[in-house]
Hints:
Chain A is an alpha+beta fold. Chain A has helices spanning 31-42, 53-59, 79-86, 97-108, 120-126, 129-138, 159-168, 224-234, 290-299, 304-316, 365-375, and strands spanning 21-26, 49-52, 62-72, 111-116, 173-178, 188-193, 197-206, 212-221, 239-243, 249-250, 253-262, 265-274, 286-287, 323-330, 337-343. In chain A, the strands form three sheets. In chain A, strands 10, 11, 12, 13, 14 and 15 form a six-stranded antiparallel beta sheet that branches. In chain A, strands 8-7-6-5-9 form a five-stranded antiparallel beta sheet. Chain A starts with 20 loop residues before the first strand and ends in an 18-residue tail after the last helix. Chain B has one domain: Leucine-rich repeat, LRR (right-handed beta-alpha superhelix). Chain B has eight helices and 14 strands. Chain B has helices at 49-59, 82-90, 122-127, 164-171, 200-204, 222-230, 250-258, 277-288, and strands spanning 9-10, 13-17, 35-38, 67-70, 100-103, 133-137, 154-158, 180-186, 213-219, 240-242, 267-269, 293-295, 304-305, 311-312. In chain B, the strands form two sheets. In chain B, strands 1-2-3-4-5-6-7-8-9-10-11-12 form a twelve-stranded mixed beta sheet, with helices on one face. Chain B has a two-stranded antiparallel ribbon with strand order 13-14. The longest helix of chain B is centred in the last third of the chain and has 12 residues, at 277-288. Chain B is globular.
Amino acid sequence: MTASAAVRPAGTASSARTGPRFAVVGNPENRRVSLFTEAVRAAGLPAPRVVAWADVLRARGADFAADEFVRVDSPGENPEVDRLLRDATDPTRVEGSARWYTRFTAALRTLRGGIPLADPDDLAALFDKRACHAVLDSAGVPVPDSPTSGPHGARVHGWDDVRALMREHRMPRLFVKPAHGSSASGVLAVETAGGGRIRATTSVETGPDGALHNSLRVRRYHDERDVARIVDALAPDGLHLERWVPKASQAGRAADLRVVVVAGRATHAVVRTSRGPLTNLHLGGSRGDLDGVRRAVTAAGARWSDVLDVCERAASCFPRTLCVGVDLLPAVDWRRSFVGEVNAFGDLLPRLTGLPGSGAEGLDTYGAQVAAVLRAPAGSGPRHPYRTGTAHA
Amino acid sequence: MTIGEHLDALHGLPAFTFPGPGAPTDRLPEPDSVAWRLNSGVYGADEAWADTFARFRAAVDTNRVRALIIGAWGDAYDRAPTEIFEALVEARDAFPALRALFVGDLVMEECEISWIHQTDVAPLLNAYPALEEFGVRGGTGLEFTALRHGALRRLVAETGGLPVGVVRGIGASDLPALEHLDLWLGTPDYGGDSEAADLEPILSGARLPRLRQLALRNSEMQDAVAAAVAAAPVVERLEVLDLSMGVLTDEGAVALLSGQPLTHLKKLDLHHNYLSEAVAERIRQTLVAAGVEVDLDRDDADEDTEDDGTVWRYVAVGE
């Protein structure tokens, strides 16, 4: 495949323009792309050039003009792209995330030119939970204990390995996560006690042929053989284990936070609450009360600014990526928080406007990113050190 | 449903969690102004309970402590709080003002209710004869050796399954001051192996002369409980009757309505129920008209019907 076959930017030679221009690599039909397009237009700029993931994957790359800011968005929710990335013919299938990861990270490196708003190395770490955990941990960001952290962590080949690590690390309650999964896909919350008692909470169900599917219903498995079957099927794609941090609750429901950090600054936050251990909104989680969380944190003697600070520290581990979504787990007493995940595509929070004092008041997550690019010195990428600007109120 | 929230108060005092190891203890509330929650072995602060208790006793004038909440003790799903009970019994002289004690304030994220291990709570009650309020969460291993306690006004056992030994132990106890008894009977799946007949000593009221509020709830056999209550002598002295959170169907509710009059009650709590609208309406007609406050909220009582017609109904708090 030669470069001439690759997707080329239209109008590379055009010079007359009034402001920066954007390109977005995404699935054109996806609302993520339309929301970003709206945000660019709302800033008075021409609509971004949309480069379809399907085209990038088929043409083995795309070229961008030197002055184009290149946003990389999720390749998800598109059956053809899903097929190209992991040979999946059924989007609900859980397996294939290792293949997905290999092809996705390779595809990132075929995006040539432009000013990237997300860095391939950052994304490679963000889409490997074991690597991400190690990066955060070594930077002093509070994370749940994990025996599988980083390149030297234990590798898990099946349920027997999970059991061995649980014993070795005295970890009777833990989360088992596919190393390259997203949106709770393939995640199991596992509780064990003496006498062989076990319970796993997950959205995974096993088909008649043994294949694993994500469903929108959370299931509980009480038979270790069922849990083992699922974990054994997930293991070839790589697994990451984390000790279960008991989460704080709001109105009787377990709560965590999604905090979007743009250019080093925590700009948007939502509370997600659930009756079970998985708080994802598509699994029955619901939006909680952010003011209530601020009050609870303060009442517990902790500081809300410290909560946001943990998220900004986590984001600073990925300094060449403009925006990440941090999943923050407040521990039961609200006095401490741990970073559960950092999501490269964690900004899909339609219509949510920025936190007071964040500089993104009145802007959604996409508007905040456009504004951050406009604020930055001409032609520069997102490089943001930890602690830019003033502390949060 | 599960337990999602810690106690926010006990004995009318707001709950306050004693800070973990390393956290400052120089600006604590007045000892008698809060219900102190002691947690140990919690995530990221793996302190032994004895050490937490020692720090608490050093930082707080326990002579003035009125209410104590025992929260997490680490591995509660594997280990009964035996050591905690022993320490509290031994420290009884240091807590002359203690009037309320709750053991096992753990939420689902820490340990599901039916996974919490407990042990015999009678030694605690015997060691604190001035205690007015006692509560426990978790039924696994829970015991209640029959006792006499002259001060206890409120007794609560929250479980997904209350062992029959506890039901019988409470029934055989002399509790002359008890005004409020709240038992979550649960299901056999989680160790709730009592039958309605085991409730008879409680329902006779013979050893509970001051009982005003009775809750026999969260029961898989809620219909049988309701039928037993319908003819129970204790009912005439009650102000509040609570048969909520269980598998209460029309059968139990009709039995209840067919028994002695309930119009003297201030409140009848039947929330989380499987009643038909016709029977719910009968209850309203009979009792609301007589000035009884009735809670008939169906809440999250949802039936599952299998293909073969089998209907599954659930208590509010199980596992």
